[in-house]
Amino acid sequence: MNQPAPTPSGVFDHAHEQVVHCHDETSGLKAIIGLYSTALGPGLGGTRFHPYATEAEALTDVLALSRGMAYKNALAGLDLGGGKAVIIGDPRRDKSEALLRAYGRFVESLAGRYYTACDVGTFSPDMDVIARETSYVTGRTVEHGGAGDSSVLTAFGVYQGMRASAAHLWGSPDLAGRRVGVAGVGKVGKHLVDHLVEEDATVVVTDVDATALDAVTSRHPGVRVVASTDALVDETLDVYAPCALGNALTDDVVARLSATVVCGGANNQLAHDGVAKLLTERGITYAPDYCVNAGGVIQVSDELDPRGFDFERAKARATGIFDSTLAVLERAAADGLTTAEAADRETEQRIRTIGRLGQVHLPRR
């Protein structure tokens, strides 16, 4: 087993099994693959293509994201560990067939310890290109036998988590008439808005991408747009749904929120561990991000079923996010924990009882 990955400060305080730095000079690829744990099975997690300012910033992100995937997969009841990858660059400028195929060769070099999929900046057609170099790919296009866009069930799972939060707090999962603010209407947020509008919730949105906003308001003219995330936080809301990048919940945001439920699709929403306590102290029910946004990984993991991908089977499993979210919220209330602590305990209990303790996943020969 490799040593755990060093933080940018050089201190080994992450318990990652393996971290791989990938560089291909010809294509310009610079990427990092992080494997947090394979105790439950091979690590599964998407590839994020993002213009990180420094390699240290990319490393920090991949360490946090791969740990989050281990917890997400475990809490979702999947026999999969946690991994993640980041490609350093601007996907609009730097993405190419050569770069994606070079990245695929690095994935292949891990011999099945890591399965990749889509994330911010990567899409199902990109997975088809990567699959030309490795078989350890999920989230491929439907035309190539894959699950297609995993954001469909990611949003569905967040919607189920929101319904569970409403049932826990207000006694009914019904969201009709509730004011919901969605920060980020890209891959996941746009589908979440569809569910909310269908249930007659009042929806307010924001996004840095005007095209994404135009697409949502064209489909749903009753959705209101505000200029920024700060403006959305200051709205009078029942539910706040962060669906963009991480660290959305800071001390300042929590102090200003009027919403009594936070439930969104973004990963790593808490800016630091103490934010969970601040949310509890303010009486805000926080549905832990890795609990509610597991629909996407449920969707792409279904591709690994020997019978082939079945969307309805995956959707039925994602419906279970309602129950898993409710269990976390009820455990937090019963045991006097923050919901983040309750989710971690549920997850760690499964890894202890089901996982192969002290072992790592090795591909079958």
Automatic annotation (TrEMBL):
Residues 148-358 form the Glutamate/phenylalanine/leucine/valine/L-tryptophan dehydrogenase C-terminal domain. Keywords: NAD, Oxidoreductase. CDD domains: NAD_bind_Leu_Phe_Val_DH. Gene3D superfamilies: Leucine Dehydrogenase, chain A, domain 1, NAD(P)-binding Rossmann-like Domain. Belongs to the Glu/Leu/Phe/Val dehydrogenases family. This is Glu/Leu/Phe/Val dehydrogenase dimerization domain-containing protein. It comes from Aeromicrobium halocynthiae. The lineage of its organism: Bacteria, Bacillati, Actinomycetota, Actinomycetes, Propionibacteriales.
